[in-house]
User: Fold this.
Amino acid sequence: MNAAEYIKRTMNVAARECGILRSNMIYLFCMVVFPVVIIFFFTSLMNEGQPEDMPVGVVDMDNTATTRSMTRKLDAFQNTRITRHFNDIAEARAAMQRNEIYAFLYFPAGTTDKLLSMRQPKISIYYSNTSLTAGALLGKDLKIIATLGSAGVGSAQMSAKGYTEKQITAFLQPIAIDLHTIQNPWISYNIYLSTMLIPGCIMLFIFLITVYSIGTELKFGRSKEWLAAAGDNIYVAVAGKMLPQFIVFITIMLAYIWYVFGILDFPHPGGTWTMMLLGLLAVVSAQGFGIFMFGLMPSLRMSMSTCSLWAVISFSLSGAAYPVFSMSPAIEALAQLFPLRHYYMVYQICVFNGFPLPYAWFNIAAMVGFACLPVFIMRNLKRAMLKFVYIP
Amino acid sequence: MLQRINEGLHDMCHIWAEEMKNVVRDEGVLIFFVLVPLLYPILYSWIYNNEVVREVPVAVVDNSHSSMSRMFIREFDASPDTRVAYHCNSLDEAKDLVGRQAVHGVIYFPQDFQTRINRMEQSHVSVYCDMSLMLTYKAIFQTASSVAANINSKIQTSLSGNTTGREDEITIKPLDFDEIPMFNTTGGYGNFILPGVLMLIIQQTLLLGIGLSAGTAREKNKYKELIPVSRHYNGIFRIVLGKSICYFMIYSVIAAYVTLVIPRMFGFVSLVHAPDLVTFMLPYLLSCIFFGMMLSCLVRYRENVILLVVFSSILFLFLSGMSWPSSNIPGTWKAVSWLFPSTFGIQGFVSMNTAGARLGDISLQYICLWIQTVVFFIMTCAVYKFQIDRVKKLRSREQ
Assistant:
């Protein structure tokens, strides 16, 4: 058999697959509709970048011009919005338990008195860590207000004594931190999370649809017909089956890349070509992994359950939210078995930070390895298609 | 009338027993009802067991080579959150290390770092953070800020020429402040995410198991319908109640394990008040069960359930307001989130578990869960009535 024969057979299987894709509505939903919904969901949910105007409360037992000015300054911050003034701490805490506010500022009685007489009053900042995002941001803002209050006193005093601006700054803050948040100067959570969550969801669909499409051949008793269309060659059969799905998935991936990096203009100093290469690697590694999973366990239900387990755990083990190097060493090793982890590493090193591809050679090799995994189970798969029976 | 109710109760118990048998016989349903709720929480808790990020490696480029820069570096290294892993000669060297993932940030001291301080001018330390991980950025920036603040206070003290220690304290900090992180005081990642994930596992496994069971019933059925052809399955309420009691029975145990045993096993914050928890879990479980039963009519083939439910897990987690604060979720998505039990379940449970809220504090979520229970119950009954009518029509057509 020559190459032309192989190609013709592959096209045959691909055409058959297109018919199957068209006939079952679930394919349309899982391959096109849901990924598009996911893309818009995450990018629109975190559209602000950083949560703005989060509700904060104030317990002001002092009620002077100074405390009111500090409250106004806190309200002026981008992340905070003063929603209520409470009568005491218990009320404010209860509101925090009801999730009405995420933090509050407490001025005890006599704060301004003590401040003016240099007796070091103490204010308190309370913030809720039930949502780490809100807690961390609001804690930072409240700390800045408290520090500014302190600096304000010193500044007023020194100004009265005749010091210049430069001298005052040099005294109040001799060492200043110049923060450079590389590639994400807005500290946008959208840029941070969406670029991992959306590809993770797309890869989840690829896993499941790959396994589903192969498994339903067995379920509906079409497996022998499938192999016959491929001339009994399992490689041709799988390649032909995966080809239409590959085209759809790569289109969705490219749509994601175009929308997120083109229209929303997320930072990608690594270049568009690198991102597209990464998208291609993601699709083939997910498909390869799906085929491998089914070949390992030729039961539709078992392999779908395992793939869904793999896909959902990937979100945590990719190490985008909680770093992998902080997990226990056994989990660190386990994380290497998940394609999304390698996707995230390549994205982070080559696309987001703009380093050349060889810096992520291990992860790229791992993704290629995932794509080549089916080779090991091809014989098992052929046997399953010819002999096995669907077990619900 | 009385006889019909009697017959209904008998049939309900029959359906209850049948459903239990189906659950136990069906491996797929068993996996989702028992194995997954047992093992997933343990797996997730193990992943986040270390809770916080410590000893983040950082590279230092010290062009100043002064005693003050060395003091800064020492104090920076001493912090539990960060660790000085490399000393580099230039920013390019340090950047290369970031590319190799050897460090997650760079601290850069310019040549005139100490000279400027000695001349009573403001001096700058540059902190470059790799923004691919927010937790490492936080660790590096917060440590740098507090080390700088510490050294600043030392410099201010030496410059002020005060007489007593108390005067020094007041000069450094005219306005003192206390920082109190409440509820999840450790700021641990596991403490933060697990309560939400635990509640979500309950809903998702229920949806998967019920859907799978419905799919199996449909496939095994002569007419590919949801309801078997049997005289026991004649009334809506007996079917709906019979099946839901079966699921409720299994899940009351699972829910107790997930909400009470797992937090204690892994040492998560667990301020939940048991009677309040039981009262809250009742409408949550019921609304999840009826939601699952209502959606099970959409399922034609068993495995379609897995495709439909799995991806929604991450959606529901975000819609509940755990990662992204619920006050900042856009209006449309907020409205969509009200359709699902997990939104209110997660919000209520997190408040109870991590913030020690009582039932009165989460009354809004509680009432919404009951409303959802009633609405989903009515819709489930409508779905099953539709199914019964179809089966009756098919049977009469056959006869």
Q: What stands out?
A: The first strand of chain A starts at residue 54 and ends at 60. Chain A touches chain B through 114 residues (CB under 8 Å). Residues 3-47+188-387 of chain A form one domain.
